[in-house]
Amino acid sequence: MWAAIWKSLPKVVFATTLPAVQGNARLASGGLAEEIERLRAEPGEGDIAIGGATLAAEAAALGLIDEYRARVCPVLVGGGIPFFPQRERRVDLELVETRTFSSKVVYLRYRVAR
């Protein structure tokens, strides 16, 4: 079920080595701020989701994130790229929603406090 929903969603891919993308995706033609501005200007409603630690960190540093939706999986890992690296400014968040799934994954939804 999730795969069918995911495949139908439009996607913007940020890559410098891909000549083309397939399905309901397109390659970004500008920087992250330009692409998000373009997406926000499109008609209709919907969320813009960002996948990948490097892209998420860039969006956070640029102040482009209005809401954080994190899923915490009960697993210990020894490394990786942090989604939220240390930053010069503090970002205050307001907890909006929590859910715990049968898989033990915890969903946390935060809104950026303004």
Structure in words:
This protein is α+β, with helices and mostly antiparallel strands and 114 residues long. It has one domain (31-112): Dihydrofolate Reductase, subunit A, CATH 3.40.430. It is 23% helix and 24% strand. It contains 3 helices and 5 strands. It has a 3-stranded antiparallel β-sheet, with no helix packed on it. A two-stranded parallel sheet has the order 1-2. The longest helix is centred in the N-terminal third of the chain and has 10 residues, at 32-41. It is globular, with a radius of gyration of 16 Å. The N and C termini lie far apart (36 Å). The model has no long low-confidence stretch (mean pLDDT 86).
Please sum up the structure shown.
With 114 residues, the chain is an alpha+beta fold. It is built from three helices and five strands, in the order H-E-E-H-H-E-E-E. It has a single domain (31-112), classed as Dihydrofolate Reductase, subunit A (3-Layer(aba) Sandwich).
SSE blueprint:
Layout: H1 2-8, E1 11-13, E2 25-27, H2 32-41, H3 53-61, E3 67-72, E4 93-100, E5 106-112
Parallel strand pairs: 1-2
Antiparallel strand pairs: 3-5, 4-5
Number of spatially distinct domains: 1
CATH class: Alpha Beta
Q: Radius of gyration from the CA trace?
A: 16 Å
Strand order, sheet with most strands: 3-5-4
Low-confidence blocks of residues: none
CATH topology: Dihydrofolate Reductase, subunit A
Strand portion, in percent? 15-25%
